[in-house]
Amino acid sequence: MSAEPQVTEVGREATDEVVRIIHAAFAARPTLDPPATALDETAESVADALEEHGGLVATLDGRPVGALLLAPATVPDLDVESLVLRRVSVLPEAQQHGVARALRAAAEELALERGFRRVHVTARLELPATVAFWARGGYREVTREGTTLTLARELPVESDVATAEAMQSLGERLAGRLRAGDLVILTGDLGAGKTTLTQGIGAGLGVRGGITSPTFVISRIHPSLVGGPALVHVDAYRLGGLAELDDLDLDISLEDSVTVVEWGAGMAESLAEDRLEVVVSRSLGGAGSADRRTVRISAVGARWVGSDVADVVA
Ligand SMILES: Nc1ncnc2c1ncn2[C@@H]1O[C@H](COP(=O)(O)OP(=O)(O)OP(=O)(O)O)[C@@H](O)[C@H]1O
Ligand SMILES: [Mg+2]
Questions:
Q1: Does the Cβ of 195 fall within 6 Å of ligand 1?
Q2: With 0-12 CB in 10 A as exposed, 13-18 as middle and 19+ as buried, what is 217?
Q3: Run means of pLDDT, 10 residues per run, the chain, 314 residues
Q4: Are 109 and 252 in a shared domain?
Q5: At 33, which CATH number?
Q6: What is the pTM of this model?
Q7: Which residue CA neighbors atom 5 of ligand 1 most closely?
Q8: What's the gap in Å between 214 CA and the centre of ligand 2?
Q9: Which residue, among 118, 101, 116, has the nearest Cα to 301 in the 3D structure?
Q10: 235 pocket-lining for ligand 1 (C-beta < 6 Å)
Q11: What residue's CA is closest to ligand 1, atom 6?
């Protein structure tokens, strides 16, 4: 099996295939207490689910090897609309071929198409590899009941931002969603507009101005003029990683501030539990046409689930 997995949206017609995959996948897992309810799925329950909200089937070399069911639901405890990915199943012999990843990506795309702002799953604490798989995809625990975790993520949203003024006002709108303790990581090409966005955030927060590219200092603190959180503006080109943020000799606590890190492209992998990843891209326009800038906001962490923060670019 060498091919890339292919994922197709399916309905009731795929019932037999989906039931077979769910049963085979869940039967191969270690026995849990209480047992996984997926093994109780019948042709009837799966047919009903597929008919109502559809599902996905993944194939490798044309062979169906993975499946999941979709359903609109509210995230437990948070009471916000979401698309839940249920019975995420990969046949044991098809593991390690990116099947689950392909299913996850396709489900997220479909969720956006259907107008959902977030997705969630349940996973058992006894299966740490499964929990880690979702965590790598940005899913974070929002609640747990016994050993059953609910993991959720906001879906990323992208939009064109045509002018520096528009970039600035996007920053101002974003500031309206930020509070003390928040971390914003700005990734993007040279001259893409990261500092311009930060200036907008500063204006929106009402902090003392003079926000410039902090190229010659690692960080600057901009105190609030309105009794709110300060803005800490960091240039991470000169920082080894986010862990070093804590080591910066700031006479201010990051918990009491909004921290904005300008980060080189490809450097954002160092993790903090909750963060807003903002990618500012710039593609050069041809002769006579302007550069095109896009901003993509991806909110990671329980802090952001249900926040609709991506609305600021929608
Ligand atoms: N959306 C936009 N459309 C057009 N021009 C923009 C846009 N956003 C920013 N600019 C302009 O692009 C230039 C570079 O912007 P900025 O300094 O914010 O980029 P940066 O990503 O911080 O750069 P660096 O990589 O050097 O830190 C500025 O002149 C700014 O006015
Ligand atoms: Mg800059």
A1: yes
A2: exposed
A3: 87 98 94 89 97 98 97 94 97 96 98 96 96 94 96 94 96 96 89 94 94 73 95 77 66 84 62 83 81 92 90 84
A4: no
A5: 3.40.630.30
A6: 0.87
A7: 164
A8: 7
A9: 118
A10: no
A11: 164
